[in-house]
Backbone:
């Protein structure tokens, strides 16, 4: 199978500082890939390069078959992005947010209308269609933001700490959506500080000081490092970090 | 050290209820955790106890002082680290610390022993502006600023949100050392795994307290058997277990499913999973975590 994300020694330097150092990995279609690392390990830099938002210093990478140096416009059309900090417009209703993002991605009105009904039904938000996003509970906002990031049927969705601050039941409902999307063939690239969520991923990578220190399935990583949970694996690798953010 | 009696608070002229009938007390030298998601009412309680917000009803005391009548005395003897950092972004690490020390009529030197363990980690960067610090460093500086006047009670509102595992572990080590010096700590968090590090915890949701106990007792009071089921394709297993008619609750927990059944004796479940094509499935009884307990309380 052709990988949806493929990088080869992908590197970003800021002056003498190497934020991301020779990252080489592949992510398959429909895979849930956990991208872990301590604050300051270089996750955001790497993600920005993969999204076509930051020009690498050296190395190669293709996203959905497009080159991160020369085809950033095409990349942006084929990916979705959601972060905890910003995704939705508070002053727009649920429907308006979906329509806005559909429009941004150049979808036709008819297509947007159909997609809106589909999303509202899937999220069971039909009654809230005309509610301003600011009046929704945080958990619903997160689920809506995730769905909106998928509105244009992207190949890959990047989730940057998507589940902060919600109760444990809502957090799991969110993961149900992720599983569902992956099941339909969307590749999910996710960062999180909740180590139990790392276990829900097919594979995880752990970044330390700009390099990928470990990459494998959660089960194999636990076996290799001799711990019974990913948190301990992470702690062992990340505490060796020399650079302070 | 801290008492709350029937505390109630509403916003927007009574239309939005923030907290209702909150009763608990915190003993001297205790680490007491308020555990719950965003919007549960944790910050409202912190603001009432630190005398920054008046309750609609009820009374509360901190260190024996009433939060309304004796607010000045409370402000002198407590340290408060709000969820959104209270630091001055344009001041350096050292200037921030100096500012807080001066406001409380003390000096960094006088109480240096209290913050030394924490401060040495950020001291090499003492001329860096707070706005340029990482999350972990801001967190350490904010804690130093909350400690510099030698408070008897420390209020920490979600000190570890958005902070990585390594910094979180270090932070809780620091809290244990502060506790050893006799400081009483009220701390809130949305991370359930931090609950077990507290002496007692209150689980809070939608402005109401669901339970107040030691972490051990909360776990002991889990009313049914909890099973961990592993194996096969995770998502398919989750869907099939939810569809099983003997299942009461089923949630993913890391690499396992945590399942309770309508009847603790469940002989047909493996047979059922076998018929659904799952291979190599294991099932075992396990001790619940605080998160299991919280999920169960939420479902009520």
Residues:
């Amino acid at each position: 199978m052709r990988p949806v994300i493929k990088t080869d020694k992908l590197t970003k330097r800021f002056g003498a500082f190497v934020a991301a150092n020779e990252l080489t990995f592949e992510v398959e279609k429909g895979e849930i890939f956990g991208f872990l690392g301590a604050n300051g390990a270089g996750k955001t830099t790497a993600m920005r390069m993969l999204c076509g938002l930051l020009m690498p210093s050296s190395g190669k990478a293709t996203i959905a078959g497009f080159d991160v140096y020369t085809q950033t416009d095409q990349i942006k059309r084929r990916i979705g992005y959601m972060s905890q900090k910003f995704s939705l417009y508070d002053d727009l209703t649920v429907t308006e947010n979906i329509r806005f993002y559909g429009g941004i991605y150049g979808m036709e009105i008819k297509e947007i209308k159909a997609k809106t009904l589909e999303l509202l039904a899937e999220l069971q938000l039909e009654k809230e269609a005309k509610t301003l996003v600011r009046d929704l509970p945080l958990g619903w906002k997160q689920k809506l933001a995730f769905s909106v990031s998928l509105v244009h049927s992207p190949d890959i969705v990047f989730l940057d700490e998507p589940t902060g601050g919600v109760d444990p039941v809502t957090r799991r409902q969110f993961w149900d959506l992720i599983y569902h999307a992956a099941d339909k063939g969307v590749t999910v690239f996710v960062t999180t500080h909740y180590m139990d969520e790392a276990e829900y991923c097919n594979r995880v990578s752990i970044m330390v000081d700009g390099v990928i220190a470990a990459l494998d399935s959660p089960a194999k990583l636990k076996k290799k490092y001799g711990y019974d949970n990913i948190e301990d694996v992470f702690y062992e690798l990340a505490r060796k970090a020399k650079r302070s953010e | 050290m801290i008492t709350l009696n029937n505390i109630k608070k509403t916003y927007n002229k009574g239309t939005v209820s923030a907290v209702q009938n909150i009763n608990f007390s915190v003993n001297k030298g205790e680490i007491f955790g308020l555990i719950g998601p965003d919007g549960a009412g944790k910050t409202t309680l912190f603001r009432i106890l630190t005398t920054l917000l008046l309750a609609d009803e009820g009374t509360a005391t901190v260190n024996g002082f009433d939060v309304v009548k004796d607010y000045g005395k409370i402000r002198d003897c407590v340290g408060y680290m709000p969820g959104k950092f209270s630091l001055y972004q344009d001041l350096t690490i050292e200037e921030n610390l100096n500012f807080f020390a001066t406001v409380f009529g003390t000096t960094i030197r006088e109480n240096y022993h209290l913050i030394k363990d924490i401060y040495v980690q950020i001291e090499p960067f003492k001329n860096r502006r707070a706005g340029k610090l990482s999350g972990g460093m801001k967190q350490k500086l904010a804690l130093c600023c909350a400690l510099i006047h030698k408070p008897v009670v420390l209020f920490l509102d979600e000190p570890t949100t958005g902070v990585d595992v390594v910094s979180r572990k270090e932070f809780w080590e620091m809290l244990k050392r502060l506790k050893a010096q006799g400081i009483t700590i009220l701390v809130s968090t949305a991370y359930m795994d931090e609950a077990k590090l507290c002496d007692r915890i209150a689980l809070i949701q939608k402005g109401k307290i669901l339970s107040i106990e030691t972490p051990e007792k909360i776990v002991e009071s889990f009313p049914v058997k909890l099973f961990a089921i592993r194996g096969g394709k995770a998502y398919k297993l989750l869907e099939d277990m939810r569809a099983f008619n003997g299942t009461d609750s089923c949630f993913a927990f890391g690499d396992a499913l945590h399942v309770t059944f309508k009847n603790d004796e469940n002989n047909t479940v493996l047979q059922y999973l076998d018929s659904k094509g799952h291979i190599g499935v294991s099932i075992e009884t396990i001790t619940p975590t605080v998160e299991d307990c919280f999920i169960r309380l939420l479902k009520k």
Summary: Chain A has one domain: 29-54+77-238.
